[in-house]
Specification:
Layout (H helix, E strand, L loop, with lengths): L4 E6 L8 E3 L5 E6 L6 E14 L2 E14 L10 E5 L1 H5 L20 E2 L8 E12 L5 E3 L6 E2 L6 E3 L49 E5 L6 E7 L6 E7 L5 E6 L11 E7 L22 E8 L2 E2 L3 E6 L15 E6 L5 E6 L4 E12 L13 E19 H12 L3 E6 L5 E15 L7 E10 L4 E2 L1
Parallel strand pairs: 2-11, 12-19
Antiparallel strand pairs: 1-3, 3-6, 4-5, 4-8, 7-16, 8-9, 8-10, 8-11, 13-16, 14-15, 14-17, 17-18, 17-19, 20-21, 20-24, 22-23, 23-26, 24-25, 25-26, 25-27
Length: about 450
C-alpha cells in the first residue's frame, strides 16, 4: 500500500521554480492520490545538502512537520500545504567566512554552491497518517515516502524587494527575464538595469578601500542567462595608459547555463586584483577603478572604487587617509563593506545593578538599604561619514545586519575581523547649502571573539 498522496503544487511541479529564497514562504502542496485510502494527516521531513568530510550529503533539518487538511479542501479529497521556509533558513549560512579573501578565483570565479555555499539544494520527503479498519489513526511508516526530485530544488537567503515577488504563491521568485531592480542577471543588459552585483551600494558612489590585503568579494546571481559575461574593469595602468573593459579574470565570470551565485575575490593586492591585468600593479596604477559585468558592448551598472595607500604600498598616486573598514552581511546575504574615513571615536558608558538589602541601619550615617550586585563599563566606538541620502539609506543595512565586523591589522600585519554589535545609527542633515548631504554615524561595541583570516 503506497502513500496515497501526490505533489500537486509547489517544489518540482512549478515551471518557474528554479531558485527560491527562504526570506519568503516556500510552499509545497500535497493532494489525495488515486487510491481509495484517504489521508488524514501528512508528515514531512526537510533535508538540505551540506558538505561533510569533503563531500555533499543531505542532512535533515528541524523536526518533522505534521499538517491536517487545508480548510478549503474537502474530507473526501483533502489537500495539505506546508511552508518550509523557516526550516530551510537554518540550513543556509551567513556570508561570514573570511577565508574567501584568500581563495583563488581560477579562470571563472568562485561557485557559491560548492565553495562557501550561499545556495543549497533541498528535498522534501512525505508520508501519511490514515484511519485504519479499526478506526485508529495510523502512521504509514512502512511504504516509501513521496519525495521531491533530486538536483531540482535550490534556495538562498536573499531579501527580495516586494515589487519583484511573483503573484503565483507556489514560486516565490520571478523568472530571470523579469527585472524591477535588476538583482538577477539576465540575457540582456539593456539600459544597464538588467543585472547587478549583490549589493545595494549606489552606482554613483566611489568607495574608498585601502590596499594591502583588504578583502573585496563581489557576487552576482545568475540563472540560465543564455549568455556569457566577463568581469571587466576600467582603470589607468602603471604606464599612465587608460584601459577600458579589461577582464579581471582569465575566463568568463558567468557562463550561459549557470544557475547559481558567483563570487570574484578581488582582495586589494597584486595577487588577486591586478593579477591578470597587463602593466598594472598597486605600486604603479592610478587610484580609481570601475568594475562591471560586460557582454560585448553591453554592460551592467558599475561599482566604483578609490584605492587608498595602505601597508606595503609606496604608490604616491594613492592618497593616505585615516580609515576604518566595516564589513557587514547585507540584504542579499553577501559580505559587503564600507570604509569610514574618520577617526575612531571612543567613549565609555558605565552601569551597575543594585538590589535591596531589606534593612537599613539608621545608627550609621553611611548605611544604605541598597547594595551593588554588578557593575560594568562598556567601551563604545563611533565612526561617521558624509554621504548623500541614497548612500545613507544603503548604509542603514549595517544597523539591521546581524553580522558586522571591524577590520584591524594584527601584530603580524595580517587582517583580523572583529565582530561588533552596532548599538546605534544616526543620520544628521547638514545645512541647507549642502542639499541632500547627511552625516551618517554608527556606534558599536566590540565582541570578545576575533575572526582571523
Amino acid at each position: 500500500m503506497a502513500q496515497n498522496i501526490v505533489i500537486s503544487d509547489g517544489v518540482a511541479s512549478h515551471a518557474t521554480k528554479v531558485i527560491e529564497t527562504c526570506n519568503r514562504p516556500i510552499l509545497i502542496k500535497y493532494s489525495k492520490g488515486s487510491g481509495s485510502q484517504v489521508p488524514v494527516l501528512v508528515q514531512i521531513d526537510v533535508s538540505v545538502k551540506e558538505k561533510l568530510s569533503g563531500s555533499f550529503t543531505f542532512v535533515k533539518k528541524g523536526n518533522a512537520l505534521v499538517q491536517g487538511r487545508d480548510s478549503d479542501s474537502t474530507e473526501a479529497s483533502p489537500t495539505f500545504t506546508f511552508d518550509i521556509s523557516s526550516i530551510l533558513k537554518s540550513g543556509i549560512k551567513k556570508d561570514v567566512d573570511f577565508d574567501i579573501f584568500g581563495t583563488a578565483n581560477g579562470a571563472t570565479g568562485i561557485d557559491r554552491k560548492s565553495s562557501f555555499p550561499l545556495l543549497a539544494e533541498y528535498k522534501v520527503e512525505a508520508k501519511t497518517w490514515f484511519i485504519n479498519n479499526d478506526g485508529v489513526l495510523t502512521y504509514n511508516s512502512d511504504d516509501a515516502s513521496v519525495d521531491t526530485a533530486n538536483e531540482s530544488l535550490f534556495f538562498c537567503d536573499i531579501e527580495i524587494p516586494d515589487k519583484e515577488v511573483n503573484n503565483e504563491k507556489f514560486t516565490n521568485t520571478l523568472p530571470y527575464n523579469y527585472k524591477a531592480s535588476g538583482w538577477r542577471i539576465s540575457s540582456t543588459l539593456v539600459n544597464k538595469s538588467h543585472g547587478k552585483f549583490l549589493t545595494n551600494c549606489p552606482s554613483n558612489l566611489r568607495r574608498a578601500i585601502p590596499t594591502g590585503r583588504t578583502g573585496l568579494a563581489l557576487s552576482v546571481f545568475c540563472q540560465s542567462t543564455g549568455e556569457s559575461y566577463e568581469l571587466s574593469a576600467d582603470y589607468v595602468n602603471d604606464l599612465g595608459a587608460t584601459v577600458t573593459a579589461d577582464n579581471l579574470l582569465t575566463g568568463n565570470f558567468i557562463s550561459s547555463t549557470e544557475n547559481l551565485i558567483k563570487t570574484a575575490n578581488l582582495t586589494i593586492d597584486d595577487l588577486y586584483l591586478t593579477n591578470s591585468l597587463l602593466n598594472t600593479t598597486l605600486n604603479g596604477m592610478k587610484p580609481e577603478i570601475d568594475i562591471y559585468l560586460r557582454k560585448g558592448a553591453s554592460e551592467t551598472s558599475r561599482l566604483k572604487f578609490e584605492l587608498l595607500r595602505g601597508q606595503d604600498v609606496t604608490n604616491t598616486k594613492l592618497r593616505k587617509a585615516e580609515s576604518h573598514v566595516i564589513y557587514f552581511v547585507n540584504d542579499y546575504n553577501c559580505l559587503d563593506f564600507y570604509t569610514f574615513e574618520s577617526n575612531l571615536g571612543v567613549s565609555h558608558t558605565h552601569s551597575k545593578s543594585i538590589y535591596k538589602t531589606g534593612y537599613k541601619d539608621y545608627t550609621k550615617r553611611d548605611s544604605s538599604k541598597f547594595g551593588v550586585s554588578r557593575g560594568r563599563t562598556d567601551v563604545v566606538y563611533t565612526l561617521s561619514t558624509i554621504v548623500n541620502q541614497e548612500t545613507s539609506e544603503w548604509l542603514s543595512e549595517i544597523y539591521r545586519s546581524t553580522n558586522v565586523f571591524l577590520m584591524e591589522l594584527g601584530v603580524d600585519q595580517q587582517p583580523q575581523y572583529i565582530p561588533i554589535i552596532v548599538t546605534d545609527a544616526d543620520t544628521t542633515p547638514l545645512p541647507r547649502n549642502r542639499k541632500n548631504v547627511e552625516q551618517f554615524t554608527i556606534s558599536f561595541v566590540k565582541d570578545v571573539h576575533t575572526v582571523k583570516q
